[in-house]
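Prompt: I keep going back and forth on a fold encoding question. Comparing notes only helps if you start from a blank page. Show me how you would write down a chain together with its backbone fold. Please set it down just below, with no commentary around it:
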Amino acid sequence: MKRRSQRGTVLPIVLMLAAMMLVTASAWLQASLVAARSTVALRERVQAFHAADSALIRCARILSAALPAASPSPRDEPSRWRVKTSFEGPAALALAPFADWPYARRVPQCLIESWAKSGDEASASYLVTARGFGATPDSEAWLQLRIDVADGVGTQHWRRVVARPF
């Protein structure tokens, strides 16, 4: 008689174990999808950073074609890099130092601005702003390099622009 009462208990136990395995498998699948998406996003940001870094290096090398100072006061930082028309449109002043950039939606750009300093006429400063792109529209990196030249000796100061200026 005991066998008849225990006969139907195996099926619910097996179904419960199968459901637990299904939930565990779906959680692992979700975790792997999140990890894959974050890996792709990181790759895009790194690619945009390297594009901007390469453009910054290339534009620092062609600094002889620097633009005249746009600052209203000699102590103010150049501000053309904050204006969208400096990088986009028919009147864009930015250079494209490379003909193409692999796996990016656009080639990197750079803008060179001279930075007028008050006082010493023998010294000069330049602000080089570079903009790099990844494969997606959201992956964009901005870098800047200030180059100070005094008495024939150049000093470089690097910084990353955290937020897009426009």
In short: The chain is about 35% helix and 20% strand.
